């Protein structure tokens, strides 16, 4: 790290190293943030918990882990040489390819020298006297910094359910979000999987290929569309690369950060045959996208009746594929509208339940009571197995932020401020926490979008905001309480114009006992949101207070 301070500053504690910015996390957002800030001449220290970079793609190495946004979309656009030189192999690349890509980015932009691995940031405290953050890690590091960027990811605080008895279990157990780097061999094993979200849906068919027996414990069935993954046609790759500017622009202006046509019709204004044809084209199209069903009609997430047509279409496909009627019925979602829990893409997911050694247990009907030393017990039956896989998800969106002891003005803890749900302005900053930025934070499109599109937009906006502060000789930036209140109310209001809040989903915090039920992401759309952020900046960072260094008492 080169110590090239551009602005004089006071350090909170003598002898504590100073940097301009601390970035927490070395996934895609942390790496790009480092690259941007360093390019502006700032000194930056990145801390990363893992022993490698990659974030999501470092941790989620479970069998079948792959992205479900197309590779040509799920990739950085900030550097055209990078964009042109990287060759993707599949429509939806697997985890190891994505991890290679992220490592390539780290090497290509010489990022590693400012990243400290295997180091968890435990505390960040704002010192009002000197207007700097004091950051501490579990390895004893301390840094004084003007800016803190939380690039901690929306789905990184993994969650093992609060079922008693795990400490008694004598077999091996794993969480999909913390998979061993060396992989796991399930050959000949009796395996249990708890959870049927995106991770479970991807892992189950591959675990079934190895295991002697597989029991899947399902609480809520999900809508799973066929991924139709395949190798990328080199001609297609070349043609997208030729049109990349246009493709990226369309993605940035779109609803979900993926360039798909905007629907103009209601599902209810077309004939049943036309609707069926549309849904079939989504289901069977080799080139389909995760969001194609959702963008089939303009009222899919606002009208229960419109949504029901898509939900019924998927339930019908499940009934066609799954041979045992009881299992098929258990796999058909009835308790939430299509898309209000994140839709999943699968490969042979429903087909897997036709295999003789695979069994589905409906733990909504017969809940898990406890884990035992040999397996688990439901209210109806005792199960024995060798390996237990938790595909039980994450304390999403806020978990990785509140896991750090972040204290702002008046020593207020972020987790206390957010006791009734996250409050942010634009999902980027929190009132009372000056110069603390959250990449893809709650209140931004984040998890409802192509994450890379949203990461780039946030990183670039934050970098511009910091550049503007430095150009103006300003020391701190934070939202007003009014701007934060208004934005938080807007996020909630727009969310409640849709069917999303009707589902018990991690978008709502429902998967974490005791977490407030608040619709956390912003559903207004990636393009609309970007425009709002740009307008705020163009209007002199409207809604933010930006101030020059306040002279500390006793120093004048
Ligand atoms: O986690 P989830 P995930 N007893 O929360 C169940 C992204 N992602 O890791 O629905 C029994 O979706 C829980 O049941 P319920 C993507 O954004 C992307 O699969 O709460 N079951 C649910 O079935 C995704 O949405 C990709 O009733 C329990 C499951 O565990 C997000 O990450 C791949 C339980 C958790 O599903 C999270 O996905 C993977 C209990 N006590 C992930 N507790 C791709 O890009 C929880 N469950 C492809």
From TrEMBL:
Cofactor(s) in the UniProt record: FAD
Annotated keywords: FAD, Flavoprotein, Monooxygenase, NADP, Oxidoreductase
Class of the enzyme per the UniProt entry, highest EC level: oxidoreductase
InterPro entries for this protein: FAD-binding_Monooxygenases, FAD/NAD-bd_sf
Keyword Ribosomal protein attributed: no
One GO molecular-function entry: monooxygenase activity
EC number: 1.14.13.-
Family: Belongs to the FAD-binding monooxygenase family.
Protein name: Flavin-containing monooxygenase
Organism, as annotated: Geodermatophilus maliterrae
Lineage: Bacteria, Bacillati, Actinomycetota, Actinomycetes, Geodermatophilales
């Amino acid at each position: 790290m080169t110590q090239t301070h551009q602005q004089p500053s006071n350090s909170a504690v003598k002898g504590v190293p100073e940097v301009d910015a601390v970035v927490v996390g070395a996934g895609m957002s942390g790496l790009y943030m480092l690259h941007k800030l360093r390019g502006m001449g700032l000194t930056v220290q990145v801390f990363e918990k893992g022993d490698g970079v990659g974030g999501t793609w470092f941790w989620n190495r479970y069998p079948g882990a792959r992205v479900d946004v197309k590779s040509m979309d799920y990739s950085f656009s900030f550097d055209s040489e990078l964009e042109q030189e990287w060759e993707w192999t599949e429509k939806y690349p697997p985890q190891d390819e994505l991890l290679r890509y992220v490592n390539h980015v780290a090497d290509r932009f010489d990022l590693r020298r400012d990243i400290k691995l295997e180091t968890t940031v435990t505390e960040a405290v704002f010192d009002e006297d000197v207007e700097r953050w004091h950051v501490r890690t579990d390895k004893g590091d301390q840094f004084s910094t003007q800016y803190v960027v939380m690039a901690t990811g929306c789905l990184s605080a993994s969650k093992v359910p609060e079922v008693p008895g795990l400490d008694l279990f004598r077999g091996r157990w794993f969480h999909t979000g913390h998979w061993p780097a060396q992989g796991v061999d399930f050959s000949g094993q009796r395996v249990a999987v708890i959870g049927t979200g995106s991770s479970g849906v991807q892992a189950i068919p591959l675990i079934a290929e190895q295991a002697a027996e597989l029991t899947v414990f399902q609480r809520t069935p999900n809508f799973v569309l066929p991924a139709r993954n395949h190798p990328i046609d080199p001609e297609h790759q070349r043609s997208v690369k030729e049109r990349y500017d246009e493709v990226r622009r369309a993605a940035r202006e779109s609803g979900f950060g993926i360039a798909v046509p905007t629907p103009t019709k209601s599902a209810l204004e077309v004939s049943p045959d036309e609707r069926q044809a549309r849904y079939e084209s989504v289901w069977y199209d080799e080139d389909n996208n995760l969001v194609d069903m959702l963008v089939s009609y303009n009222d899919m997430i606002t009208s229960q009746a419109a949504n029901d047509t898509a939900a019924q279409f998927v339930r019908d496909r499940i009934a066609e594929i799954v041979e045992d009627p009881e299992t098929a019925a258990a796999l058909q979602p009835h308790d939430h509208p299509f898309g209000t829990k994140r839709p999943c893409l699968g490969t042979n997911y429903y087909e897997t339940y036709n295999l003789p050694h695979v069994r589905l247990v409906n733990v909504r009907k017969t809940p898990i009571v406890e884990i035992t030393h040999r397996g688990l017990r439901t209210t109806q039956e005792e199960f024995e197995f060798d390996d237990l896989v938790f595909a039980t998800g994450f304390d999403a969106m806020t978990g990785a932020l509140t896991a750090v002891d972040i204290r702002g003005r008046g020593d207020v803890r972020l987790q206390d401020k957010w006791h009734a749900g996250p409050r942010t302005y634009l999902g980027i900053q929190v009132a009372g926490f000056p110069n603390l930025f959250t990449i893809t934070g709650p209140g931004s499109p984040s998890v409802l979008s192509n994450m890379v599109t949203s990461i780039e937009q946030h990183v670039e906006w934050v970098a511009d905001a910091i550049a503007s502060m430095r150009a103006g000789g300003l020391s701190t930036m934070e939202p007003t309480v009014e701007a934060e209140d208004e934005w938080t109310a807007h996020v909630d209001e727009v969310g409640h114009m849709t069917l999303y809040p009707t589902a018990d989903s991690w978008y709502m915090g429902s998967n974490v006992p005791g977490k407030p039920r608040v619709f956390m992401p912003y559903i207004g759309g990636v393009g609309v949101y970007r425009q709002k952020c740009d307008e705020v900046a163009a209007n002199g960072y409207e809604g933010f207070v930006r101030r020059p260094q306040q002279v500390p008492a006793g120093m004048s």
